[in-house]
Amino acid sequence: MHPSEDEQRDRGRRRHRGRLALVLVVPLLVAAAACGDDDTDAAGADEPSGGDVDPGRQEVRAVPDEYETIQAAVDAAEPGDLVLVSPGVYKEAVDVETDDIVIRGLDRNEVILDGEFEKDNGIRVFSDGVAIENMTARNYTTNGFFWTGVNRYRGSYLTAYNNGDYGVYAFESTTGLFEHSYGGGSPDAGFYIGGCYPCDAVIDDVVAENNGLGYSGTNAGGNLFIVNSTFRNNRAGIVPNSGSYEPEYPEREATIVGNLVYSNNNYDSPAIDSARLAEGNGILVAGGNDNAIERNRVWDHDLTGIGIVIVPDDEAEGGVFWPSGNAVQDNVVDDSRLADLGVVDQEDAGNCFAGNEFATTAPANLETLMPCSGEGTGDRDEGALDIGRLAVLEDKHPAGDIHDVPPPPDQENMPDAASAPWEAAGDPPSVDVAAIEVPDRPS
Amino acid sequence: MTGRLGQRARHNPALGLASLLLLALGLVLAACGDDGTTADRGNGDDGNGTTDNPEEVAVIDGSEADVNVIDNTFDAQNIQVQVGTTVVWTNNGRQDHDIIAVDESAGFGVDPDDFAPDSVYEYTFGQPGTYRYYCSLHGTEDAGMVGTVIVQDE
Fold it and tell me: Smaller CB count within 10 Å for chain B: N or C?
């Protein structure tokens, strides 16, 4: 049994500090993740990696059976605990300030945090090592799931839609993983990692659609991987970018490999102005440096499939973040109305293009002009990218209404959520970039 | 008790104009100008506009002290000023922020509706004390986007 929507209403910030941990009755889970079970080597059963956890006292805290709200369970939790949430609509804005806990929904599509367009963040995390799994956050005025200023974070099997800024968001946080998740209907980005260097983070197997930007990574880089994911029907798909409005600028050293990026011309999506400026581009490096963009399949864009452009910014040297050192290799790009591959940069900036399948470039003959090995030859002015097509806000489509974005269909559940062992967030998995191939086009 | 000598929130037309010009010139993911009055950021200034050690305190002389508000940090995070100093917070971020005094009786603070990007909020501190504050959208009283104004007697 779980509380009705009315019962949940406005319980969001009530705290229940000091409540004694109760003896837990969650048979399936306890059977699989018993405290101090020495016979299992399952990750997390004994000690979440990286945390300071007493392996003898991990507990499951069930919502709403033991705690009426997620916030109450989170406040009662101690490092190593699991907050296990049953299906229901939870009209809460949850703050987490305890290290090394896991917050898990029993059903990704039926455990729903709802901000009703009044509350700011679904779950906001200020502590290290917190993992959130298998639930949905919708209709928050700012973010669905938000980690800020933490070391070690993880979001797995999350759905975030129609939230006012970002769907799944890590700011000034390092050592993280977003995986098997969905972000939709955000006017900024469905997935966002910002203000970190090195980020030491991975985005793997996510879907972003109907956002202003599928992925945005302002000033985020350094051991940062965006791989094996789908970015479709946003205003723009993947947009690493520099900006002095966040720390750690400029953006550099993101690795973007093996993604499906298509049809990012969704002018009905909600959008902040920067997303409007970026609209119609698949992968757009805006004032970023030393990014590796490899073996992505990119198609159907009104402007560029893969573009590298400048960003004016008062705090940048000379008033502009000039892109440099970006390597675009072995991608398959087609059906771009302005150019499959395009760049606006300074001469000898070190941006390079090689091994791509494409039809058009701007400037012309990019792989000859800016090869990734050897000297380039050609005329930088011939067929130069018309930056004006990207730059004038007044020419862009107006933002859509967040309320008009349809909810996503049910998303894949975490396997065995009721019984799987739990593990606080630790180091993200290493990514074998070389093993990632160009993904097939979906049928 | 803290005296309220003056406070106001305003949109900075110069910053708005700068943004429009930059929008017209190129792809701008957000750009707001530094008007050149940014206070000493202290020894923790890492050269890109943020202090790298939140424990440090930037000592600011003069009748006005600027705090650069970006996503999602107050820079300088901790400042020390003299009684009578007007602290000026400028939202140079791309997001809405607010300023909430931890001590509700402190008398300063601004709502997000009045502190959108490019907006300025200022408050003159008339009494000595340590005033902690935070952005409720991106922090709590003691975590995330937090700041402190230490006001000293002359």
Answer: C
